[in-house]
Each structure stands twice: as structure tokens, then as C-alpha cells.
């Protein structure tokens, strides 16, 4: 991998644009000089003053900034020992699961780190070792915690830093809920303008690799429409306005050869998989991607979407003018919301050998050190979860300047999990002329916004209905139970399982999943569990034991509801109804895959009445039986809502409704509590 540190420019949180900000500080990094985050930047450990060598004085110096805006702390920095302070709630991020993060930091920096006691809001961290080691460790810690800094603090610091120009406050706007947030549109546009000279030095991206087969070119519009209707009613359109000069949407290919006739080695790889024909999304996506257009695929896992974006990516890597060995940094980035999905994509990627293309999977909980080593050796494809990607980008282990083909997989899920800032930060410096692909199971406003920011005239391919249409190959059963009866009913069901049955049991909380797993073990029923409290290695083992049949019961939280591909899963049990109706669809969709049928069994208790109406819609759409009791539940809930709204209206004199949408009493709390 080429040396590239000196190419780094300030990252997005430091929103003072290069042209207007004071000259960035210069400092040594790995023995090289680079421009970048200076020690006066914007992270939590910089609350306190640096360079106090007097030793022994831990007194806080709250008044230093003229009475209380920013918090400054004195620290002891006695040659080979330095104490820094971080917010207590962020210490977990520095320690990592099972201490993996702190071990990484110690290994990388060669500093010794001691986490001290937390005194209320702050905890002290002692760094020991050589000056270089301490400074490296401090940088790494800053990198880990800065993402999580409240917007208000970032704003304050940026504002302070830009007083001379007075411009950076222009990059904030007031959100709908009144908070000050970064105006990414403006900031990206400004950044691109000021980075233009840098981008101009890069080789143009080669994007067009498609030669339309004469048979495909000869298809009439009526034939194309009929093919789309017959293939799951696939819909294809420009996402945003048609503009003059845009090429017409290409016809779908019907065979692998029609897509890859000029790439026999790709065809060989496909033949090895024994697939009969392209899946609908592949038929339509390959011509679009091979000719270099941006694509939005509204499709779920199981539709063949990974291969739809992967094969054009391989051709894209090989087709650039600079040979891949000589390129600075990797070419393709695939971002995925969860470790499981990232690993699943990685597995799919590793099935296709083409021109020695190498990939790496970067995910939190995996061996960070090892991941950094692989990146440093040189890779062409990076598959990453947003947190770890951002971590390595910020720590300057990953050069993103040459990413020219980017995939945001399951974008809706990434937004649900709160990854938008990490996505935006990671993409901030990526060249704007790249090709961008996005997949999403749904099309909410957040995903649309992301598409507007990062994509150029995308073509959208919708596979299946955009509504919450549960898979039609699953028989969806509903069972009414009291909360206290759930466990017993579940055990009864499991005792009557056939030896060939494979079941996922979805629980609402990690604690419930742990409890159920323990109870099953005590009863001698073998099972595995998958939730956010388990170490990555255990989560991977749980999945692979399910896939290879070592166990046939998996107890999980919603971390497993999307993207997990266990082909012969026969049953999905919703022990707890999910917080959001979308999640119901994703859970149910874990079974009934690859042409098979499946059964879902959903326990409904009186607490779930707020979801009854939405559930009825899904059941009806999929031609499932709708129990009378569910209808009654929905009607009772609506009547109660009306009554409450009326009472509230009378109380306040305004008469405005509740929160609507069936969520008001179902607890529309935080989504990502797995
Ligand atoms: P995905 O939707 O990418 O998660 O793919 C789900 C599964 O479908 C993966 O195991 C793929 O290997 C498989 N697959 C991809 N393309 C095809 C195809 N054209 N025919 C049959 N299976 C496929």
C-alpha cells in the first residue's frame, strides 16, 4: 500500500473549511508530517488544557475560558505519564467488549493504559509510556470518542475555531425538533468545491463496461414491460426528476451471458455456483451498474442483491486505468449495518475469484489489529460496518480517496440504527464522481435524503411491493396469550418440534433472550443465542451452528431479524411482538426463503394492541387468516385512542391527536436496544 498520510485533510467534524480556517497544525504521525487534526481540535479529551508539566495537580480549572463555556481540566503530565479525562459514559467505548479495544490501543500505541475511577460525569485515564506512545494512545482514544460528541459541543468548538472567518456556523441548521445539526448538504458542497483541485489530480473513473446484447437491444417496450410484470412485478424508474440528456433506462438481461459476455472469467465463477438464471434484481441491475449509473435497489435479502452489486464491482476494480496494485487505497466500499450482514457479504465476496481481487471485512468486535494489518497490506474491497469504518478512517488506517464504487447496503437499517453521522463522516472525503449503489428494504424519507445527498441521477429498481408486504411463502399464525403464559406455551411448542424443524425465537430484550436460552439449557434442549450482549466470536459461532445444523433453535433479538440467511429455517416464533411493524416483516421473512415455505407463530398479548391494525393489513395483504380477536383488539385500541384524544382535546382546548400510527402505546422508544 502506498504511503499516503500526507494527503489527509481535516475530517468533517472540523468544519472549518481549508480556505477560510487558520492553517491546520502540523504534527508528526508515524514519522511523517501530515496536516490534520491538531491538538486544539474538537474532541472530548481536549476539554482540558494540554502540556501542564507541573505534576501532581489534578485540580479542575473550570474558569479558564472566562467562566464556564468550555470545561478545562488540569492534568498531570510528568514525562512518561499523562492523565486525561473523558466523559464516564464513553469509557465503555474505550474498553470495548471483553477489553478488546483497550488491548488494541495498548498494542498499537505501546502505551500502558489505566482506567481510573469515575467521579460523576468524568473518568480519568492514565497513559504511561514514551511521549510518542502516550500521544498515539491519546489520539486513538480521541478517535474512539469523538463521534459521540453532542452536536452542541461540536458546534461550540467549531464556532470558536472559526471566529476569524465567521463562516463555519453557516454549516449548521436547526432540525425539525429544534436541535442544531450539521447541514451536510452545504458542508459537502463547500468541501467538494474546495477539494476540487485535489480531486482533479485523480485519474478519471472508468465506468462503462456494458455492451448490450443485440437480442436485448431488440426487445420492444411491450416485451420489457411484460418481462418486468412476470418477474415479481419489478418496477424501474428514475428516482428523481428526469433531466434532458439522461440515457433511457436499459432493458433487463435475461441470461448471465447477456450481461457478462465480455467477461468470461466472471461467467466461469457464476457457472461454479450452479445458478440457473439471473434473479429479477440482477437482470435489471447489471445493465445499469455495468454502464456506470447509480442504482437504488429496493430489495430484501434473499433476492440476490449482493451479487447484483458485487459482480459489476469486480469488473469496475479491474477496469480502472491505474492497475489495482498501484492504486492508493481500496477501490470498492460496501457498508452494511450489522456485523452479521457484513460477514455474510464477505462470505459471498469470497466465493468469486477474479483477477486476484482482495477484500477485507471491518466490523466492531472483530480483531481491530488484524483488520488494520490486512488493510495495510493492500485490499481492493472493504466491507465494513459504519462504526468500525469510521474508527479506522479517523485513525487514518484507511485511505478513502480512491473509493470509486460505493455500496450502502440496507441503508434503512443503517439509519434506524443511528449510523447516519458515521456514514456521512466516512463518505465526506470520497471523490464525488464515484459510482454509488444503495439497497434498502423500505423507502422512508431518511433514505431518500441520503440518496439525494450522495447519488447522481440514480435509477431505482423495486423488487416486490414497497408496502410492508410480508413474504407470501410464509403461513403467519397468531396466538393470543397472557405475558405470563408465553414461556410455557413456547416450551410446549418446542417439545413438539419435528427433528427436521429449525426455529428462530425472537425476543424483545437481550435479557429475555438470555433467560429463555438458560431455561432451555436447563431443560436439556440444545439451542444457541444471538444478541448484542454476546461477543462477536460467540455470535458468529451461534449463526454457523444454526446454519450447519449443530443446533436447530436460535434465540435472538432483532439483531438477527434482517439479512440473516439460514436457508432451511422452518419456523419463526415471535415471543415478543417487535417494537416496529417493519421488524415483523423482516423477522417473518427469515423463513419461507429460496422457494421453500415456512411458518411464523406470533404471540400477541394485550400489550400489543397498538400494533393490531398494522398487523391485520399485513396478514390480509398476504392472504392470511385474520383472527376475529385481532380485529376486536384493533377496534378497541382505536376507540381508546379516540377517547384519549377527545379527553386531551377537552383538557387543553386544542383537540389534537396522539402520536398516531399504532405506536403510541406500543412504546416507540429507542430502536436500537439490542
Ligand atoms: P442475497 O439476496 O444477496 O442475500 O442472496 C441470497 C442468496 O441467493 C445467496 O446465497 C446467493 O448465493 C443466492 N443467489 C444469488 N444469485 C442467485 C441466482 N441468480 N440464482 C440463485 N441463487 C442466487
From TrEMBL:
It catalyses: ATP + H2O = ADP + phosphate + H(+). Residues 46-80, 148-160, 643-653 have a biased composition (Basic and acidic residues). Gene3D superfamilies: K Homology domain, type 1 (3.30.1370.10), P-loop containing nucleotide triphosphate hydrolases (3.40.50.300). Residues 161-172 have a biased composition (Polar residues). Residues 286-461 form the Helicase ATP-binding domain. Residues 473-634 form the Helicase C-terminal domain. Its EC number is 3.6.4.13. Keywords: ATP-binding, Helicase, Hydrolase, Nucleotide-binding, RNA-binding. GO terms for molecular function: ATP binding; hydrolase activity; RNA binding; RNA helicase activity. Residues 1-83, 148-172, 643-674 are annotated as: Disordered. CDD domains: SF2_C_DEAD (cd18787). GO terms for biological process: regulatory ncRNA-mediated gene silencing. Signal peptide: none annotated. Residues 10-24 have a biased composition (Low complexity). Residues 654-667 have a biased composition (Gly residues). PROSITE patterns: DEAD_ATP_HELICASE (PS00039), HELICASE_ATP_BIND_1 (PS51192), HELICASE_CTER (PS51194), KH_TYPE_1 (PS50084). Pfam families: DEAD, Helicase_C, KH_1. Belongs to the DEAD box helicase family. This is RNA helicase. It comes from Trichoplusia ni. The lineage of its organism: Eukaryota, Metazoa, Ecdysozoa, Arthropoda, Hexapoda. The gene is LOC113499171.
